[in-house]
Specification:
Blueprint lengths: L7 E16 L4 E14 L2 E8 L3 H14 L7 H11 L8 H21 L3 H5 L6 E6 L7 H13 L4 E5 L4 H15 L4 E5 L6 H12 L3 E5 L7 H10 L5 E4 L6 H9 L5 E2 L8 H15 L3 E3 L3 H8 L5 E7 H10 E2 L8 E2 L11 E2 L1 H4 L5
Length: 363
C-alpha cells in the first residue's frame, strides 16, 4: 500500500455540444458541461467529475481544494466532512454539493489506485454486473428518431428504456404508444416528466400510460412536492412505480423523501449527492427503509458503487452522458446483455481522461 498525502487538486471544465437540440418536460439544451477533477498523491492520480456549471470548478479551486490538500489520502470521509462544513454559508444543495461530489469521486479513485485495487473491490463487491436502462427519447425527437433509438437499444439486449414527456402534454400519449410499438410487448417502458405536470395532469397521464404498459413514472410532479408524489404513488395504477431523487444532495433530503413515502424507487446521483461517499450513504439509507434505488445517469461512474450495494436495481444509461464518457475516457465499457460490469483488471474507476480529444471542448 502506498501511504500518501493528497498533494494537489486540479480542475478543468468542458462544454460538449449534443448531437442536436434536446429537451425534457421543463428544460431545453444543446450542450452538456462536465467539471473534471484530478486528485494527486503518492505518484498516483484520481479522477472525478460532475455534470454541472463551470462555476462549480471555481468553487473547487477557491474553497474545496484546501479542505483536502495535505490530508491522508486514505481518509476520504474526513475530506468529505470538511468540504461539507466549508459550504455551510453558501448553501449545501445544488452546485456546492455537485462540486463536492466531483472532488469526493476523485479522492475515492485516488485511494483505490494507491491500494492498486478496483474501486468496487475497495467498497466491497456484491455482484458482478448491474443492469442498465436506456435513457433518451427526448421531446425534441421525431417519432422516427424515438423509435429508432429505442428499437436499437432493445436489439442490443437492453430490455428497459426511458423517454421524456411533458413538453407538449397533448402529444405524450401518442409518443408513448409509438415507443411501445418500437420496443415490442416484452421490454419495460419508463417515462420521465421532470416535474412538468400538476397533480391532476399526472394522475390522468398515469391512467393513459397504463394502456401501453408503462411501469415507471419518474417525477410526475416536482420532486419538491413530496405530498404530490405520495398522492400519485397512492393512486397510480398497480405495477406503475413512482420515482424521484436525482436532486437529492444529502442524507437529510433523501430521508425526507423516504419518510414521506413519496417514491417506490429512489434515484441518487453520485455527481450531485456527495460523490461516492454520499451515494453509498444513500444506498444504506434506502436499505434501512426497504426501498430499492436506481443510479441516476453517469453510467461509467456508477457501475462500481452499484455493484457494491445489494439493493441497487439498475443504472440509467443516459444517452448524453454515455456518449461523453465514451468520447473522452479510456476504460469505459458498453453494456453486455443489458448490464454493465466493472473492469477488475484496472485500479480505481478504471478510467483515463483523453486530454487531447477533450481540448477543443475546454472552457
Amino acid at each position: 500500500m502506498k501511504r500518501a498525502k493528497i498533494e494537489t487538486i486540479d480542475v478543468a471544465a468542458y462544454r460538449i455540444p449534443t448531437e442536436g437540440p434536446e429537451a425534457d418536460g421543463t428544460l431545453r439544451w444543446d450542450a452538456t458541461t462536465m467539471v473534471l477533477v484530478r486528485a494527486h498523491g503518492g505518484g498516483e492520480q484520481g479522477l472525478g467529475y460532475t455534470y454541472s456549471h463551470e462555476s462549480a470548478g471555481a468553487l473547487i479551486r477557491s474553497k474545496l481544494a484546501e479542505m483536502a490538500v495535505g490530508r491522508d489520502a486514505m481518509g476520504v470521509t474526513g475530506c468529505f466532512e470538511a468540504m461539507s462544513a466549508a459550504v455551510r454559508n453558501l448553501g449545501r444543495a445544488g452546485l456546492a454539493f455537485q462540486a463536492i461530489s466531483a472532488v469526493d469521486i476523485a479522492l475515492w479513485d485516488l485511494k483505490a489506485r494507491l491500494l492498486a485495487v478496483p474501486l468496487v473491490s475497495l467498497l466491497g463487491q456484491v455482484r458482478e454486473a448491474i443492469p442498465v436502462y436506456g435513457s433518451g427519447g427526448f421531446t425534441t425527437y421525431s417519432i422516427e428518431h424515438l423509435q429508432g433509438q429505442f428499437g436499437a437499444w432493445v436489439e442490443q439486449g437492453i430490455t428497459r428504456v426511458k423517454m421524456k414527456v411533458g413538453s407538449t402534454p397533448a402529444d405524450d400519449v401518442a409518443r408513448v404508444r409509438a415507443a411501445r410499438e418500437a420496443i415490442g410487448p416484452e421490454a419495460e417502458l419508463f417515462v420521465d416528466a421532470n416535474g412538468a405536470y400538476d397533480r391532476k395532469q399526472a394522475l390522468a397521464k398515469a391512467e393513459a400510460f397504463r394502456e401501453y404498459g408503462v411501469s415507471w413514472f419518474e417525477e410526475p410532479v416536482s420532486s419538491d412536492d413530496l405530498e404530490g408524489l405520495r398522492l400519485i404513488r397512492d393512486r397510480a395504477p398497480a405495477g406503475m412505480e413512482i420515482t424521484a431523487g436525482e436532486y437529492g444532495h444529502d442524507l437529510f433530503s433523501f430521508r425526507r423523501m423516504l419518510e414521506a413515502g413519496a417514491v417506490d424507487v429512489l434515484q441518487p446521483d453520485a455527481t450531485r449527492c456527495g460523490g461516492i461517499t454520499g451515494f453509498m450513504q444513500a444506498g444504506v439509507l434506502c436499505q434501512a427503509f426497504g426501498v430499492p434505488f436506481s443510479a441516476h445517469t453517469a453510467p461509467a461512474l456508477h457501475v462500481h458503487p452499484c455493484c457494491a450495494l445489494p439493493n441497487a436495481r439498475h443504472v440509467e444509461h443516459f444517452f448524453d452522458h454515455a456518449r461523453i464518457e465514451q468520447m473522452l475516457f479510456d476504460g469505459t465499457r458498453p453494456p453486455v446483455k443489458g448490464a454493465l460490469s466493472p473492469d477488475l483488471s484496472r485500479a480505481g474507476l478504471g478510467l483515463e481522461f483523453r486530454d487531447r480529444e477533450a481540448h477543443r471542448y475546454a472552457i
